[in-house]
UniProtKB/TrEMBL annotation:
Record-level GO BP terms: cobalamin biosynthetic process; methylation
Stretches assigned to the Tetrapyrrole methylase domain: 2-141
UniProt keyword annotation of Methyltransferase present: yes
Protein name: Precorrin-2/cobalt-factor-2 C20-methyltransferase
PROSITE patterns, alphabetized: SUMT_1
Coiled-coil regions listed in the entry: none
Pathway: Cofactor biosynthesis; adenosylcobalamin biosynthesis
Record-stated family: Belongs to the precorrin methyltransferase family.
InterPro entries assigned to the protein according to its UniProt record, in alphabetical order: 4pyrrol_Mease, 4pyrrol_Methylase_sf, 4pyrrole_Mease_sub1, CobI/CbiL, Uropor_MeTrfase_CS
Molecular-function GO terms, alphabetical: precorrin-2 C20-methyltransferase activity
Organism: Halorubrum vacuolatum
Amino acid sequence: MTLYGVGLGPGDAGLVTVRARKILESANVVYTPGRLSRGVAAEYVDGEQLDDLEFPMTRDEEQLRRAWKQAASEVAPAARNGTAAFVTLGDPNVYSTFGHLRRTLDRFHPDVELEIIPGVSAVTAFATALDVEIPAGAELTLREAPDGEAPVGPNRLVLFKVTDVPATDEKLQEAGYAVTYGRRLFMKEYESTITDDADELTERDYYTIAYAEKPEAIEGPASLFE
Ligand SMILES: C[S@@+](CC[C@H](N)C(=O)[O-])C[C@H]1O[C@@H](n2cnc3c(N)ncnc32)[C@H](O)[C@@H]1O
């Protein structure tokens, strides 16, 4: 009666947690919502146990509702009859479509219980990839910046969904931020790019994150030895 919502981390199978791996290895069926998550899960799950769920690339709410209802009606019987898992990149509870599945199951299949296995989120993994330290006590704001948007204000910003890097960059520079971009971080099968030059990232790629900080507002971490 339990569906496991499993966070896979940012894309490298070596960053899947021990607990997530145990669930994946013991599951009768593992549902994957896309090619990237399927590639990571496939490191620990036999091909016959993997099942792809298709979701339309649309913002049309009615179409999305139908797709999630359909997904829930596939997943619910599998969770009743055995061990079923639904995977997401990063953490299932952080800016994730997993929330849609959870709400749909609650509404139409309330007998299915959910257990979430947290994953390494891009929100924290970016710091290591970009070699950035967020010191204790610092403010850090997480926002989305799709289609050239650039939410500004806070001293330190992590931006998801930076699909139009040059347009977002122009606005961030104007607002006085120093910005570093990370594309496809920790995704072993793909080339990762880490750069502060927006011109290197003119192609649209959903898996792009930005870290922006206002240099004049940031004090470095205090040294213990000075
Ligand atoms: C809908 S959010 C999902 C976040 C995910 N649940 C997590 O906890 O990391 C998707 C956004 O996360 C960022 N992202 C996730 N994984 C990434 C990666 N490996 N490299 C760069 N950005 C990533 C991108 O900005 C992408 O648009």
